[in-house]
Amino acid sequence: MPPLVSAPAIRYGGANPEAPVIVLLFFSCADPAPVTVEPSGPPAAAAVAPTPAASVPSAPAAPDPAAAPPADPAREAADEAFNTAMRAFEGNSPSADGPIRAALAAYQALPQLDSDGQFHEALLQHALGDEKAARATADTILAAHPKHVLALDVAARASESLGDKAAARKYYQAIAEGLDQPMEPLPEFDDHARLVPKYQEEAVRWLTADGG
Are 135 and 171 in contact (CB under 8 A)? Predict the structure, then answer.
């Protein structure tokens, strides 16, 4: 509370009008309390927070064309049967016929085959001695990939077994002509990389022995 300061005030009255009566009046020396003056006019509108922008879902990533296709259990089983059959065949196993037929049936049961699967099928047919079927399967590959070294070799050997020397020469010549050409980026050329130079050497050797 602010200090009070007294100031004398004189008032006359009472029984003796001559006698002064002293009255003390107290008032504050403190500054008057500030008065807040509200501005005239309508009240200001309350601030409104901005509405956040709606999030836009991102588009799914485009599939990578170089990515490997999803595994097919039936195809994987056929490839495993092929490996088993060819090990038996190359090892001259007397019981190789059964695994070869089982692997061939596994491939033929698939709804479709790429060139790698067709090459396996042609090899199995050749191993069974079904040379006409082996050459026909190889020709199916060559219709789409004319310089397919693996298919050319199967077709050439099947033609030899059929006694068709002219056809064998045609296939071997195609292998020799492609010696210096890059091969297509097909999976079988990676999976059977050791066979490519072997087949190329055999083609050159056959052509040399046959008189060029």
Answer: no
Angle at 202 between CA 196 and CA 203, to 5 degrees: 90
Mean pLDDT across the chain, nearest whole number? Answer: 79
Rounded Cα distance between 154 and 135, Å, is 7
Provide the pairing of β-strand 20-28 with 4-12: antiparallel
Give yes or no for a contact between 172 and 206, defined as CB atoms under 8 angstroms apart. yes
User: Helices 73-90 and 97-108, interaxial angle, to 10°?
Assistant: 150
Q: CA-CA distance, 148 to 152, in Å (whole number)?
A: 6
Query: What is the C-alpha to C-alpha distance for residues 43 and 1, in angstroms, rounded to an integer?
Result: 35
Give helix then strand counts, H and E, for the chain: 8, 2
Question: Does the CA dihedral 144-149-155-159 come out positive or negative?
Answer: positive
Q: What is the structure's pLDDT at 153? A: 97
pTM of the model: 0.66
Ordered domains of the chain (ranges, CATH): 113-209 (1.25.40)
H/E segment holding residue 144:
helix 131-144
Locate 29 and state its tokens. Answer: 């020396």
**DSSP string across 149-184:** HHHHHHHHHHHHHTT-HHHHHHHHHHHHHTTTSPPP
Are 172 and 157 a contacting pair, CB within 8 Å?
A: no
**pLDDT tens profile 169-206:** 999 999 999 888 888 999 999 999 999 999 999 999 99
